[in-house]
Amino acid sequence: MACDIFSRLEKCVSVPFFRCAVQTPSLALNAFTALIMWENGLYSSLLDYGFFCFNLMVDEVKKTWEEALEHCRETHTNLTSLNSETERLLALSEIQHDRITKRVWIGLRFLGDRWLWVNGDPLVYEAWPEGDQEHQCPLRKRCGALTKEGHWENWDCEEKLHFICY
């Protein structure tokens, strides 16, 4: 998908079953609407579409998981949760630079007897590597990271990694 005309407004990423939606002021309605680029390359801006905003920021200062959580909550919203394949692919596209660590912190934490998102989202989607059992009852590696290969890993919370805020 090409989003050249939006390059000054938003970064567009092509993922399966996802349209590039950009929030722009609607001059006629004095409100916000979504511009959508269809597969045929045409744009629709006159109709009112519901859409979600998923704005990820990769921080290139290495921090422990707790430091990353605190930083995200102070400067953005939180460490990101990845609630779908689409969200995972969007996050994955943001960390493919050489300067980014092999894995990055996400808002996944093992507390009590289960993994959970620190923002309270339910854990309905999972991306652990196939056959991985280590995450089921971690003794030390109780924080979640997204790898450049696209899967989740449980990792030592004291390790300093880059991280993704939203």
Describe this structure as you would to a colleague.
Pfam families: Lectin_C. InterPro entries: C-type_lectin-like, C-type_lectin-like/link_sf, C-type_lectin_CS, CTDL_fold. Residues 49-166 form the C-type lectin domain. This is C-type lectin domain-containing protein. It comes from Labrus bergylta (ballan wrasse). The chain is an alpha+beta fold and 166 residues long. The model is unreliable at 1-11 and 14-32 (pLDDT under 50). The chain has 2 domains: 4-44, no CATH class; 57-165, Mannose-Binding Protein A, subunit A (Mannose-Binding Protein A, Chain A, Roll), CATH 3.10.100.10. It is globular, with a radius of gyration of 18 Å. The protein has helices at 65-75, 85-94; strands at residues 21-26, 31-37, 43-44, 57-63, 103-111, 114-117, 143-147, 152-155, 161-165. Strands 4, 5, 6, 7, 8 and 9 form a 6-stranded mixed beta sheet that branches. It has a 3-stranded antiparallel beta sheet with strand order 1-2-3, with no helix packed on it.
How many domains make up the 3D coordinates? 2
CATH superfamily of the largest domain: Mannose-Binding Protein A, subunit A
Q: Helix-strand pattern, N to C?
A: EEEEHHEEEEE
CATH architecture type of the largest domain: Roll
How far apart are the termini?
A: 23 Å
Q: What structural class should be given to the helix and strand makeup?
A: alpha+beta
- Would you tell me the overall average pLDDT? 79
Percent of residues in β-strands: 25-35%
Secondary structure: number of strands: 9
| Residue runs with pLDDT of under 50 for 5 or more positions | 1-11, 14-32
Q: Kindly provide the name of the CATH class of the largest domain.
A: Alpha Beta
Radius of gyration: 18 Å
Q: What name does the CATH topology of the largest domain carry? A: Mannose-Binding Protein A, Chain A
Secondary structure: helix percent: 10-25%
State the shape: globular
- What's the story with the biggest beta sheet? 6 strands, mixed
Number of helices: 2
